[in-house]
C-alpha cells in the first residue's frame, strides 16, 4: 500500500490496538451479560413486595455497559478495516466514533463516581423495608402478609448467607424462627450483617465496571492518536 517507514509501523500498531479494542468490546459485552444474569444479583434485583420492586439502578449501569460493548466491537472492526485499507474516510469515521465514545465514557465515569454508593444504599433501604414488614406483620399475626414478606426476605438471606441488620436482629430473627413465628433465616451465617453483605456484593461489581472502563479509556486514547497520525501519513503519501 501507499504508506512507508514510520507511518507503516503506525498502521500496524493501530491495527493491533483496534484488534485489542475489538476484543475488549467482546469482553465487556460478556461481563455485562454475566452481571445481568448472575444468580446473586438477579435473585435480589427481581424481588417484589406489595408492588414495590427492588431498585434497578444497577441494571441501568449494566444495560449501558452492554450497549458500550456492542458498539466497541463494531467500532473496533471499523478501525481494523480502515487501517488495513488505508482509507482516510474510514479512519476519519473511526476517529469521530472514538471521540463520541470517549466523551460518553468520561460522562458515565463522572456519573458513576458521584453515584457509586447509590446502588448498595438503595438495596439496603429496600432490604430494611422488607425486613421491617416481615417482622411487624409476624408480630401482629397476619399470616398471608407474613408469608409474602418472609419469602422475599428469605431470598435475601439465602442468597447472601446472612440474616438481619446486625447481630441483635439476627438473634431476634433466630428466636422468631425457633418459635415458628417466622421462617426467614438460613441455617448458616446468622451473625453476618446483611447490610455489609449487600454493600460488598454491589461494590465489588461496581469496581469491576470501573476497571474495565479505565482500561478501555487508555486504549481509546492511543487509538485516537494513531488514527490521526496514520490519516495524516496517508494524506502526505506520494501514492495518494
Question: Could you give a quick summary of the protein structure above?
Answer:
The chain has 240 residues and is mostly helical. Helices cover 80% and strands 2% of the residues. The longest helix has 43 residues.
Provide an overview of this structure.
This protein has 8 helices and 2 strands. It has 240 residues and is mainly α. It has 2 domains: 143 residues; 76 residues, Cd81 Antigen, Extracellular Domain, Chain: A, CATH 1.10.1450. Helix 3 runs parallel beside helix 8. The model has no long low-confidence stretch (mean pLDDT 76).
Task: Itemize the secondary structure elements and their pairings.
Blueprint: H1 5-37, H2 39-45, E1 48-49, E2 52-53, H3 57-85, H4 88-114, H5 118-139, H6 143-160, H7 167-178, H8 194-236
Antiparallel strand pairs: 1-2
Helix pairs in contact: 1-3, 1-8, 2-6, 3-4, 3-8, 4-8, 5-6, 5-8
Descriptors:
Cd81 Antigen, Extracellular Domain, Chain: A; mainly alpha; 8 helices; 240 residues; two-stranded antiparallel ribbon
Percentage of helical residues?
over 70%
Output the helix-strand order. Answer: HHEEHHHHHH
For the secondary structure, the number of strands is: 2
What gap, in angstroms, lies between the N and C termini? 10 Å
What is the arithmetic mean of pLDDT?
76
* Main sheet attributes: strand count, strand direction, barrel closure: 2 strands, antiparallel
| Helical stretch tally | 8
Estimated share of beta-strand residues? under 5%
Amino acid at each position: 500500500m501507499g504508506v512507508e517507514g514510520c507511518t507503516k509501523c503506525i498502521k500496524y500498531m493501530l491495527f493491533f490496538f483496534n484488534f485489542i479494542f475489538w476484543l475488549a468490546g467482546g469482553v465487556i459485552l460478556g461481563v455485562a451479560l454475566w452481571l445481568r444474569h448472575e444468580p446473586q444479583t438477579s435473585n435480589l434485583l427481581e424481588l417484589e413486595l406489595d408492588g414495590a420492586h427492588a431498585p434497578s439502578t444497577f441494571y441501568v449501569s449494566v444495560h449501558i455497559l452492554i450497549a458500550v460493548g456492542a458498539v466497541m466491537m463494531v467500532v473496533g472492526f471499523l478501525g481494523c478495516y480502515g487501517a488495513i485499507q488505508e482509507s482516510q474516510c474510514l479512519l476519519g469515521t473511526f476517529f469521530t466514533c472514538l471521540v463520541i465514545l470517549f466523551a460518553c465514557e468520561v460522562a458515565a465515569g463522572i456519573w458513576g463516581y458521584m453515584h457509586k454508593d447509590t446502588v448498595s444504599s438503595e438495596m439496603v433501604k429496600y432490604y430494611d423495608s422488607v425486613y421491617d414488614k416481615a417482622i411487624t406483620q409476624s408480630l401482629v399475626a397476619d399470616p398471608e402478609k407474613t408469608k409474602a414478606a418472609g419469602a422475599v426476605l428469605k431470598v435475601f438471606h439465602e442468597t447472601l448467607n446472612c440474616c438481619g441488620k446486625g447481630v441483635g436482629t439476627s438473634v431476634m430473627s433466630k428466636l422468631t424462627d425457633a418459635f415458628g413465628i417466622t421462617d426467614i433465616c438460613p441455617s448458616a451465617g446468622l451473625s453476618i450483617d446483611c447490610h455489609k453483605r449487600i454493600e460488598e456484593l454491589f461494590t465489588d461489581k461496581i469496581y469491576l465496571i470501573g476497571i474495565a472502563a479505565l482500561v478501555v479509556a487508555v486504549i481509546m486514547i492511543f487509538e485516537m492518536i494513531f488514527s490521526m497520525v496514520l490519516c495524516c501519513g496517508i494524506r502526505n503519501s506520494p501514492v495518494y
